[in-house]
Specification:
2 domains; Enterococcus faecalis V583 fold; 392 residues; four-stranded antiparallel beta sheet; v583 fold; single chain; 34% helix; globular; alpha+beta; 16 strands; five-stranded mixed beta sheet
């Protein structure tokens, strides 16, 4: 068997495992086993002195939420190192509630930090702190009780229904949020229902958690070149590959281009940030923009441009999802299984639709747009994969 045949077989197995995963939302709780002065964050590892302005602002907000001094020393580590993901800054502290998800096929669990437009983007004012406190004291207990009473929520069919209603599950999970709310409304107090109703992107965290469980199912498949994580921390972009284990392949994070909110310009934008590219890792987000025309203007693109860019993603993936289908493509499945060989060979980089944070701490969300990872991550990963196996 040639190396190409071995890799193709391993890649097919990695995608089979992705598709076999059955992520369910089962609870809302704090991160199990988290240390008393631990802070988890989005992206690959980063030290406090290299941390972006927005992420450092989120760390400061977390300290104030916990009641720690602003100069309190903390231990930093990525969410991905603890079976978790977080949007934008992705900062999680010991007392912060997160969504708990379980893969009913394997028993593997993951957490997803909550989505909101202030602390996640670097704000640390009293409004940002108070929102976290309200979540911890009211919304999280209400949601946890509701999802436990319901017996969990199967996310794969819900995402399939949302894709048929114009979602792409990254910047537009509006339909998924509504579908989720219908399922939980009988178990929720009115105040919680009204909050979720007014936050169309609420489901993002659950989309990320489901994607994390699916991607992790494909980890450590010997000889596989399938991507299992893409993550950014506002400083570095990081990539993980099934056949190279837990190693990160990093390069400077790019700056997204898109539409800025009133009062901000492109000059204010910080480098791309967040674990939310885990959605693109398993074929959602920018990979299915053909089915989500409502977000094109927000992303600073046109329907035809988005269609063309998203269609390119089929050239760097190896399969299509059997149930995540797109009506606009005559119900063709979403592309899944990013192969680093195909990325390097074609020069086509994954398309990521993303929110934009300010380059300095202290601001809420300032825009949204599109970006692509640095090619250096993929070439470094492919070289390492080949070197491990003595391939020339």
């Amino acid at each position: 068997m040639t190396w190409g045949e071995r890799i193709d077989r391993a890649n097919a197995e990695a995608v089979r495992r992705m598709l076999a995963a059955r992520p369910h939302w089962i609870d809302v709780a704090t991160v199990p086993g988290m240390g008393a002065r631990d802070i988890h964050h989005s992206g690959p590892p980063v030290t406090i002195d290299r941390m972006s302005g927005a992420q450092s602002g989120a760390v400061l907000c977390a300290k104030r939420f916990e009641g720690w001094p602003d100069d309190e020393p903390v231990s930093l580590s990525p969410n991905h190192h603890h079976d978790g993901v977080g949007p934008m800054a992705g900062v999680v502290s010991p007392s912060m509630p997160v969504f708990i998800l379980e893969d009913r096929a394997s028993g593997r669990r993951a957490y997803a930090a909550l989505e909101e437009p202030r602390m996640n983007f670097g704000a640390y004012d009293e409004a940002a702190v108070e929102l976290r406190r309200w979540w911890a004291t009211f919304l999280a207990p209400a949601l946890g009780k509701a999802i436990r009473e319901r017996g969990g929520l199967d996310l794969v069919p819900l995402i399939a229904r949302a894709l048929h209603r114009g979602d792409e599950m990254h910047n537009r999970p509006a339909a998924a949020t509504s579908l989720m709310l219908v399922e939980l409304a009988p178990f929720l107090p009115r105040e919680a229902i009204e909050y979720i109703r007014d936050d169309e992107i609420f489901f993002l965290s659950l989309s990320m958690g489901a994607s994390k469980l699916m991607a992790d199912a494909a980890r450590d498949v010997e000889d596989s070149t399938i991507v299992t994580a893409m993550a950014r921390n506002g400083t570095d972009f990081g990539l993980r590959v099934s056949g190279t284990g837990d190693r990160w392949f990093t390069a400077p994070a790019p700056v997204a281009k898109g539409l800025m909110l009133a009062g901000y310009s492109a000059a204010d934008a910080g480098a791309d940030m967040g674990d939310s590219a885990i959605t693109e890792t398993i074929g959602l987000g920018g990979f299915v923009l053909q089915g989500a025309p409502a977000i094109n203007e927000m992303l600073g693109t046109t329907a035809s441009e988005a269609w063309t860019m998203a269609e390119e993603m089929r050239e760097i993936t190896i399969a299509t999802h059997p149930t995540w289908t797109l009506p606009a493509l005559d119900f063709r499945g979403a592309p899944i299984g990013i192969d680093i060989r195909k990325v390097v060979e074609t020069g086509i980089l994954p398309l990521i639709d993303t929110a934009i944070a300010h380059k300095q701490a202290g601001h809420p969300i300032i825009g949204a747009g599109l970006t692509r990872p640095p090619m250096e991550c993929f070439t470094a990963a492919l070289r390492a994969f080949a070197a491990d196996r003595g391939i020339r």
